[in-house]
Design a protein that fits this description.
about 450 residues; mainly alpha; two-stranded antiparallel sheet; 9 strands; flat
């Protein structure tokens, strides 16, 4: 955008004549004034609404053009915006800047789906959207409708799984489908919804549930290859299944067998515990501290990257927990700032506290929408209105700026575990107490081995 364009889009009261005009000139004293006050007679008045500034095309301002295009986009069969689409129409029409909204209507692939929904005679609902093929556009439009209050909020990560399962079952035997559906709906999803209702932030339940269903389908196929039915399963069959594992994935069959046993489809069977693995690939301390210093001091880095990187390098929270941080997790007083990752606050370095304060205070407006996002305000908002950045996007963003999330997190947790008792580590980081106990055991054993190696050096 040129300086001239920026001035045209920001009309203000002229200090000389008092008219609201684009201040495209300066008087002899250097003050910004409108064109007519210096003899430049260009007319920036909209022929439709009479406002000045923001010229777009054919003598009309961008606000009027936007209103026309929103109406065309969201018009129902009778050519007018339907009542159920009015909240979205208002949010688009009253956008803080009309130009990004006009561009979004013109270029976004999501608008094609919105136009289809507006022209549909059926009432908008989650169920109507569920009938559409799963896609990125469908997910974006659904959240846009939730964001503007047209649809009610729901836990979308969980509610997408039934549609995913039907896609997976398309080429599976009917007998497998008859087991997979109740396993998902009445066992996995039911428990996941109960847990989600009591969490401060959602776990990555959708990914875990998909894995458990996928393993169950693999197991049913494995049984078919051996002419087995559920009633015939014996412990030796489970041992054979686990013995053929090339990863920890096969151990997830415990969830399916727990359900089949509760339904009396199988006898009591035992799946061994997943072998515990030590943390791998810790970021070297000689790399960790310079990265942290860069996050705290390098103004060339984006503020969200600096804050997220510093939190990861210092405290090692899961990426899911990091992405779901809100301003309510920050506590400021006259002297100090604290961050709530678990049950107890952690003291923040002053520079990190200032970065998080900036993120907490920045307005969370979408450029094509007028209203502040309802519900939680995220420290790290995503591209989808009303949603935080995804864990995948956060990992990629930090990685592009040289911060390897997994190894950085492991190094931070190892450093904390070397200094803190496991109960305090669990309370501070929010991790499970058993996980904290393993981290402390690992860190202190590693430290003891290091000291022993140093003692043996001549």
């Amino acid at each position: 955008m040129t300086c001239y364009t920026a001035v045209l889009r920001s009309p203000a009261e002229c200090p000389r004549c008092g008219m609201v005009q684009p201040l495209i000139a300066r008087d002899d004293d250097g003050a910004e004034v409108c064109g007519p006050c210096v003899g430049f007679a260009a007319d920036y008045t909209c022929k439709q609404c009479g406002r000045t500034g923001n010229p777009h095309s054919r003598g009309r301002c961008a606000h009027c053009v936007l209103a026309e295009r929103v109406n065309a986009l969201l018009a129902g069969p009778d050519g007018t915006v339907t009542p159920q689409m009015e909240p979205l129409a208002a949010a688009l029409t009253d956008a803080p800047s009309p130009f990004p909204a006009i561009q979004w209507i013109k270029e976004s692939p999501n608008t094609k789906l919105l136009a289809r929904l507006a022209a549909d005679v059926h009432e908008l609902s989650h169920e109507l959207l569920d009938e559409l093929p799963p896609s990125r556009n469908q997910r974006y439009v659904r959240q846009l409708l939730v964001h503007t209050g047209i649809l009610e909020e729901r836990h979308e990560d969980l509610e997408r799984i039934p549609g995913w399962l039907e896609h997976e079952l398309a080429d599976k035997p009917a007998a497998h489908a008859n087991l997979a559906r109740p396993f998902l709906h009445w066992f996995l999803l039911r428990r996941a919804r109960q847990r989600t209702a009591h969490r401060h932030h959602p776990a990555s339940a959708d990914r875990d549930l998909r894995r458990r269903v996928s393993v169950a389908l693999d197991f049913l196929a494995w049984m078919d290859q051996r002419d087995l039915v559920l009633a015939d399963l014996a412990q030796e069959h489970i041992d054979d299944w686990i013995a053929g594992a090339t990863s920890q994935r096969r151990y997830l069959i415990r969830y399916f067998l727990k359900w089949t046993t509760s339904r009396r489809l199988t006898r009591e069977l035992t799946v061994p515990s997943i072998p515990r693995q030590e943390p791998q690939d810790l970021l070297d301390e000689d790399d960790r501290w310079p990265l942290l210093q860069s996050c705290l001091t390098d103004d060339a880095l984006p503020t969200d990257v600096r804050a997220a990187g510093a939190i990861t390098l210092l405290f090692g929270p899961s990426t899911e927990r990091l992405c779901h941080l809100t301003p309510e997790h920050l506590k400021f007083d006259n002297k100090h700032a604290h961050l709530m990752l678990g049950r107890h606050p952690v003291l923040l370095p002053p520079r990190l506290a200032e970065l998080l304060r900036q993120l907490a205070e920045q307005p969370q407006l979408r450029p094509q929408l007028s209203r502040v996002q309802p519900g939680p305000r995220w420290l790290f908002p995503g591209m989808v209105p009303g949603r935080p950045i995804s864990t995948h996007a956060m990992t990629q963003k930090l990685g592009r700026h040289g911060i390897p999330v997994r190894t950085a997190r492991n190094a931070a947790l190892a450093a904390l575990a070397a200094d803190l008792p496991s109960p305090i580590l669990a309370d501070v980081t929010g991790m499970h107490r058993h996980t904290a106990l393993r981290w402390v055991a690992y860190a202190r054993r590693d430290w003891a081995e290091y000291l022993a190696a140093r003692a043996e050096d001549p």
